[in-house]
Amino acid sequence: MEHIIDLQQVSFRRGEQQILKEIDWIIRQGEHWAILGLNGSGKTSLLSIVSAHQFPSEGEVHVLGNRFGETNLPELRKEIGFVSSSLERFSQMFQNDTVERVVVSGKFASFGLYEQPSVEDYRRVDELLQDFRLSYLKGKRVNLLSEGEKRRIMIARALMNRPQMLIMDEPCSGLDILSREQFLHTLSVVTKNGCHVIYVTHHIEEVVEEITHVLLLKEGEIVAAGEKNAVLTDEHLSQAYQVPVRVLWDEGRPYLTVNKMEALKRVEEEKNLKTV
């Protein structure tokens, strides 16, 4: 399978609102992508499609070699892991569970454990906890963990079924800088396990070394897509974020600053246009 994802002329509408417009996007073997864009740029709708939870209004979709309309989407979803800060709303279901029970529940894609795991399943749990340097949490209840530890446990849970693709939707939202860096370090474990990453964020400093490519969206259309060094430029990001910005690279990692003088100039120009 050469293409992990292949979208051809994909559009998505909700009622009269055009959310995605003629998206062409390919993820090849060995590539790991970040998706960037302002709120309302279409990131969530795009994730719903590639995670096999939503059909497009138009266009052709292939995910993990499966063509939408010719495949069983619930079965396809078993090949796709998903981690999001929004999953915190389900955390109450895990509060009284141990770390091992939470991780092993990923095999059954359930919030809570309603089936009997095998001895082999728990061996897999031990492997994941060791890979993520979380073995010290064995036996602990989830309600005793820090937010950063909970997020890393959720990644281990998502990898329980050895998915071919892992989607992360703003997974560092709400984490302090230490917890964020500890979380980002786990991406190397994910990629070494042969899992392809799609990482959605508002913050380009989260585009770490393991991320190879970037898709930049604006109002449902692609501004730029390709290798991260070619996409994360002042010009592309200023266009997508609608404010003049500069990109600074440090040890292979990008950081964003706002060009204050240009931003103020643009604000004044917009004020003058409104008063004319």
TrEMBL record:
Pfam families: ABC_tran (PF00005)
Domain ABC transporter intervals: 5-244
One function term, GO molecular function aspect: ATP binding
UniProtKB keywords: ATP-binding, Nucleotide-binding, Transport
InterPro entries: AAA+_ATPase, ABC_transporter-like_ATP-bd, ABC_transpr_CbiO/EcfA_su, P-loop_NTPase
Domain of life: Bacteria
Keyword Transport: yes
This protein's record includes keyword ATP-binding: yes
PANTHER family cross-referenced by the UniProt entry: SKFA PEPTIDE EXPORT ATP-BINDING PROTEIN SKFE
Protein name in UniProt: ABC transporter ATP-binding protein
